[in-house]
Automatic annotation (TrEMBL):
Residues 411-544 form the GGDEF domain. InterPro entries: dCache_1, Diguanylate_Cyclase, GGDEF_dom, HAMP_dom, Nucleotide_cyclase, Rev_trsase/Diguanyl_cyclase. Keywords: Cell membrane, Membrane, Transmembrane, Transmembrane helix. Residues 321-373 form the HAMP domain. GO terms for biological process: signal transduction. Pfam families: dCache_1, GGDEF, HAMP. It comes from the Bacteria. It is a multi-pass membrane protein. This is Diguanylate cyclase (GGDEF) domain-containing protein. The chain crosses the membrane at residues 301-320. One of its GO terms (molecular function) is diguanylate cyclase activity. One of its GO terms (cellular component) is plasma membrane. CDD domains: GGDEF, HAMP, PDC1_MCP_like.
Length: 552
């Protein structure tokens, strides 16, 4: 026979299982469709955003080069041949202004065809730092005899095609740097003059394209108008060509400029967009990473459903035990109090009999703990001066000793020892009640000076101070201030017992000398007695000097 608590729990759990199963099936289907749609939009958005950044990058170079080329071409249309050198110089000045405001440019040049002019060669400027360019010797084209298959691409291809063109990556002949360039042919009376162009550092382009990333292994690559690879993360391997071939025979055409394909054993999804310079930007991502988003979400939903089921079952069990648990807590708390642990947390606060019992028990614990704290205060606080007593001093030293013996800790501390002079004289002449005033005055003087350090009364007229932290760093200044306040107090006092003739001694912990805190305290005590001897000697000499003057 099952109890009511068991049957209630089973019925609740069964109802939750049915409801969660229906909701989970609907959620899984909806999330799958929504996840695919969102991922496709994310892929298109990443490609569009990347294309916009690259367009801005390419447009800056293309616009600057076309601007210079247009102005130069216009000036060449009516130029006498013998003004060629002047026109080149004019172009140099124009190019200098334009290139400085062009993002990403590495070199710019105006190279004259040796067949047009064997003497005027043009110019070539190379970027030296963020804002400056320096002129570099131009490439000697006569060694190639302008042979198209052999001569530099940046010169021969624009000459051959007769139009502006972006060239795929190549290595510059003189700089040994990999670049891509935009070049514009210039003509004079329909005769080829030379090439105006700008080169972009391929590493700069690679950084711009490398920023286009999606998920963990998604990346972008760029093809030119002839499907040559301009940029690919695996530019130095054959993978760049293999991926281009794989995309040419896709597994599925999802839509315009959107395909599924497999490459290197990985199923992938890719989208692409044309750039205004004839290149194409591709963004590709493994299908596993695309699907992982909604698949992970589905797994989380299933996991959450399981957690909810377990949580509700747990709540039902807890609810069934609602009455018995507070009593069990009270029993355990009583055991803890009996063992000396008063840090008990009892949260039950309902307005019923168990709640009343719990609040009463908590009040009892509070009063007991306050009584113990009061007893501890009586044990560790000096009744007359309200500073720490000798028992507290010994406890503090023991804790400090434990830290000293820990090799992982580096300690810095000092011990100050103080002794009240003339206490016996005050007691004998004015009475012990005035002696007590004398001791309290000395204690207050020490406490006002060493506000951030513990002060201990370790004997009838002896005190100690343990300096650490900021007080330790400022110990010399504090002891100077103490002497100053002591003198001011003694001068201002109307009676002997209101003065505070206190002798002090200080010792700093030295790991080479001190194996125990007591060793530091003993050196401080010796220093104090030496200071006391010196003060007495000084007072004796002053008396003798005064007497001598009186006799004279």
């Amino acid at each position: 026979m099952h109890s009511i608590r068991t049957r209630f729990t089973l019925l609740t759990v069964l109802s939750i299982i049915i409801a969660l199963s229906i909701a989970t099936l609907i959620g899984v289907f909806s999330i799958r469709e929504l996840g695919k749609s969102d991922t496709d939009q994310m892929l298109h958005l990443k490609c569009t955003t990347g294309a916009m950044h690259l367009e801005s990058y390419f447009d800056s170079v293309e616009h600057s080069t076309d601007t210079v080329a247009t102005l130069v071409q216009d000036s060449f249309d009516d130029m006498p041949y013998d003004q060629l050198e002047n026109q080149v110089e004019h172009t140099r000045q124009l190019f200098n202004k334009v290139a400085a405001n062009t993002h990403g440019v590495l070199t710019y040049y105006f190279r004259i065809d040796p067949e047009f002019s064997p003497t005027v060669k043009g110019f070539w400027y190379v970027k030296t730092d963020e804002d400056n360019f320096r002129e570099h010797p131009v490439t000697d084209l006569t060694q190639y005899n302008t042979n198209i298959p052999v001569a530099p691409k940046w010169f021969t291809i624009p000459k051959m095609l007769g139009k502006s063109i972006w060239l795929p990556p190549y290595d510059t002949e003189n700089l040994g740097t990999r670049v891509i360039s935009y070049n514009v042919p210039i003509y004079w009376q329909k005769q080829f003059v030379g090439v105006i162009g700008m080169e972009i550092d391929y590493e700069t382009l690679a950084q711009e394209a490398g920023k286009i990333r999606l998920f963990d292994h998604g990346y972008a690559f760029i093809l030119d108008a002839d499907s040559n690879v301009v940029y690919h993360p695996q530019m130095d391997s054959v993978l760049q060509y293999g991926e281009k071939v794989a995309m040419g025979a896709p597994d599925q055409v999802v839509g315009d400029q959107h395909i599924h394909y497999h490459f290197n054993g990985i199923n992938k999804e890719a989208v692409w967009l044309p750039l205004s310079n004839g290149m194409q930007l591709y963004v590709t991502v493994p299908l596993a990473e695309i699907n992982s988003g909604w698949q992970t979400l589905i797994r989380r939903i299933l996991f959450a459903a399981l957690i909810i089921l377990l949580l509700v079952s747990f709540i039902m069990l807890r609810f069934a035990e609602r009455i018995t648990k507070p009593l069990l807590d009270l029993t355990e708390s009583a055991r803890q109090v009996a063992a000396g642990n008063y840090e008990i947390a009892l949260d039950y606060n309902e307005n019923d009999e168990v709640g009343l019992l719990t609040r009463t028990f908590k009040q009892l614990i509070k009063q007991t703990q306050e009584h113990i704290n009061h007893l501890n205060r009586q044990v560790y606080i000096d009744a007359m001066t309200s500073v720490h007593n000798k028992a507290s001093y010994e406890s503090y030293i023991q804790k400090l000793q434990e830290q000293m013996e820990d090799p992982a800790k580096t300690l810095e501390f000092a011990v100050g020892v103080f002794d009240c002079d003339n206490l016996k004289y005050i007691n004998d002449v004015f009475g012990h009640d005035k002696g007590d005033v004398y001791i309290k005055t000395a204690s207050q003087l020490i406490c006002r000076t060493f506000k951030h350090s513990p002060v201990f009364r370790i004997g009838g007229d002896e005190f100690a101070v343990l300096l650490r932290g900021e007080d330790f760093q400022n110990r010399d200044e504090l002891f100077r201030l103490f002497r100053q306040k002591r003198e001011e107090l003694c001068v201002a006092a109307a009676s002997d017992w209101e003065q505070a003739h206190v002798t002090m001694g200080l010792a700093v912990y030295d790991a080479q000398l001190d194996s125990h805190v007591i060793d530091v305290a003993r050196r401080a005590d010796q220093c104090m007695y030496e200071n006391k001897r010196l003060r007495k000697e000084k007072q004796r000499r002053m008396k003798e000097s005064t007497k001598t003057k009186a006799d004279g």
